[in-house]
């Protein structure tokens, strides 16, 4: 039987292969330190689970509106509007089964075949996959590794804009770089979007995972509310990755279309999960605060551990839960010239399991350096210490 | 801001407009008898909810494999394989957030732009919408209203097969007709699929909602397992419409591709909902049996009520939870020649709220008769009696 040609353009999250390799290594009796996971090994706050149980016992187990229950749309509109200093109403919100569905639905709503979409690379691999699967041209923009951290190469990005450019995907509090935009970068991107009349998908998955400073959204800048769709998710802030709850937030005109895609693709998001979401937004926030406190401890342990490994160079991020060290010297020291091979040998010699730059989009032209991603969301501080000591032991003995 | 042209090809479930009209009429102080809903006003069996609560308290709140948790895939493989007399393994199962996602994912996996797909009409409106939205040509096949009930017009269907025909969508235990195939019809369709090398999507959403006889699946027939994807859902059998849990069941080769679409579109289905699904399949079945018992009572009440309304002609179905009466005489008696207007006047004169044939796909050429759909899944027997008495009162007084 034959399959659709379009499947040849469908990418995936190759990070899952790293998880499989780690699982194999564990099965052979080895200890593994899981820095590859973007998942959280922390419980969902109790009040949120309790709200879901209550909803089920109240019989909230039937279909609900395609765009989501009104109380959740209202809660999100108020909370996000306040944080971002814009006015949202429930009509600006289309609830989704996770943050990820927003990517494809946004693209299917704005992109014609052959349209170009700018996306961050390294970046979340589903951007590239969904642009191409939905008949668009994925045009990567890149980052510069500066003494002040990773910064978008804005000249490069602007040089990639053509009359076919339809949309710009941005991911402040970036995965995998954990880079953040300066105000100047954000303003420049907003200017470009306004000048070239681009739609903007602002992936704000890590907006609330923050250890210092304050998150800002491009939607707050002049002219942006009319052209921006925010990808919102409950996954990270409330340790709800497996609950599958998120939202597309944008102008009513596009939200109506995304809601029609909901009707076509999955009817609605599980009703009682949405009621739990109302509690997450409006209820006691101590669980969410505790989560950030724990993650900050882990970030500090991760940075401290990396600094003991010979040849690794890393920026200390103030948000998200990743670090993205440059490891060229470490590779040279351990006799590697291939990043994937280095990662595998690190696993076999120290138990450290992590993704590399290669899991986050096709390499951009003229790319320099060798980077790995350590996620500290799924591993306790004591294991972080132990894993990085083992890595240091292996590397530093060479 | 401009939207994608493809949105012009995106349909919807227009039945939601009927619900809105009914809600308005209620708000004006009128009693409404909701026969328009395909939802169930019955609770999910207790043991299923309890299994979900247990899963949450055990911390099953993180990401899980894109194709679903192995215990659920195993439970579905065993249960469905046994019922349908074929061998399924977990590799044949891709868990979904509902049955509906299977439609689009199947089409995106097998259909190239311009390919033709045969689909039932009247039928579930999302078939037509998703074929066209995903760049295919939706080719309707039709039903004949015979003394033995609705039957697929097989000659017509075969005449519509061309070299561009890629797939055939079937829906035994049909919505909205509540028609069922005879063995001969099912065998003929299997022969056509084998002869013309077609993929088959077998929508089996109502397979287990049955009052007499036995459901059969086309997948059981020779040559069909290699070309058939079953749309399975927990929604109807276990009164879990708002839980959003279903599965695509088919050859490993297509299930792998559908799982990759899962990775791209929503990562996975809510983990704890899947654990509840394991209990639904493997646990106590008394809740599911009770549900069918209640629905049978409602079916009998609906048929009895219709028979008191002058000019309505109806078949008594043995499965699903719809009836599809022909109402031309009733319309003539009440001075109507437009079906939509008749439905609205019925609401205003009797409180009866229902969908019509027009909510289930574009009319097929040379179509005869005027049909309405009464769903008895969301209304108690006493209300069924009352609503149909009111309708009879209004109609019979003319």
How would you sum up this structure, described in words?
The structure is a homodimer of 398-residue chains. Chain A is α/β, with parallel strands linked by helices and 398 residues long. In chain A, 40% of the residues lie in helices and 14% in strands. Chain A has helices spanning 15-27, 46-57, 70-84, 101-110, 125-133, 154-159, 183-195, 252-265, 271-282, 286-306, 328-333, 339-350, 381-396; strands at residues 33-34, 93-96, 116-120, 137-141, 143-146, 149-152, 165-170, 199-203, 228-233, 246-249, 322-323, 352-353, 355-356, 372-375. Chain A has a 7-stranded mixed sheet, with helices on both faces. A 3-stranded antiparallel sheet of chain A has the order 11-14-13, covered by helices on one side. Chains A and B meet through helix 2, helix 4, helix 5, helix 8 and helix 9 of A and helix 2, helix 4, helix 5, helix 8 and helix 9 of B.
Number of strands of chain A: 14
Order of helices and strands of chain A: HEHHEHEHEEEHEHEEEHHHEHHEEEH
Residue stretches of chain A low in confidence (pLDDT < 50, at least 5 long) are none
**How widely separated are the two ends of chain A?**
53 Å
């Amino acid at each position: 039987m034959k399959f659709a040609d379009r499947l040849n353009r469908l990418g995936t999250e190759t990070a899952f292969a790293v998880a499989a390799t780690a699982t194999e290594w564990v099965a052979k009796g080895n200890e593994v330190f899981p820095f590859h996971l973007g998942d959280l090994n922390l419980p969902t706050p109790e009040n949120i689970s309790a709200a879901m149980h209550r909803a089920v016992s109240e019989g909230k187990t039937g279909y609900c509106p395609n765009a989501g229950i009104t109380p959740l749309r209202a809660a999100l509109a108020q909370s996000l509007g306040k944080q971002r200093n814009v006015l949202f109403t429930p009509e600006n919100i289309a609830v989704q089964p996770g943050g990820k569905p927003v990517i494809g639905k946004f693209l299917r709503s704005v992109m014609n075949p052959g349209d170009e979409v700018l996306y961050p690379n390294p970046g979340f691999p589903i951007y590239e996959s969904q642009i191409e699967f939905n008949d668009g041209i994925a045009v990567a923009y890149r980052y510069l590794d500066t003494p002040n951290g990773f910064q978008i190469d804005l000249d490069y990005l602007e040089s990639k804009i053509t009359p076919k450019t339809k949309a710009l995907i941005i991911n402040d509090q970036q995965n995998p770089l954990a880079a953040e935009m300066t105000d100047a970068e954000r303003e420049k991107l907003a200017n470009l979007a306004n000048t070239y009349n681009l739609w903007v998908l602002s992936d704000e998955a890590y907006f609330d995972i923050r250890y210092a400073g304050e998150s800002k959204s491009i939607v707050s800048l002049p002219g942006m509310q009319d052209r921006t769709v925010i990808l919102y998710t409950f996954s990270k802030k409330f340790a709800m990755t497996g609950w599958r709850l998120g939202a597309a937030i944008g102008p009513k005109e596009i939200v109506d279309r995304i809601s029609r895609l909901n009707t076509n693709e999955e009817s609605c998001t599980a009703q009682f999960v949405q009621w739990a979401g109302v509690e997450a937004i409006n209820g006691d926030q101590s669980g969410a605060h505790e989560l950030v406190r724990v993650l900050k401890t882990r970030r500090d342990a991760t940075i401290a551990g990396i600094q003991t490994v010979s040849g690794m160079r890393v920026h200390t991020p103030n948000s998200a839960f990743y670090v993205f060290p440059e490891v060229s010297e470490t590779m040279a020291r351990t006799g590697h010239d291939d990043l994937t091979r280095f990662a595998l040998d690190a696993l076999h010699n120290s138990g450290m399991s992590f993704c590399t730059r290669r899991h986050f989009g096709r390499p951009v032209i003229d790319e320099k350096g060798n980077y790995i991603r350590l996620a500290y969301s799924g591993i306790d501080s004591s294991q972080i210490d132990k894993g990085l000591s083992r890595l240091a032991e292996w590397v530093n003995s060479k």
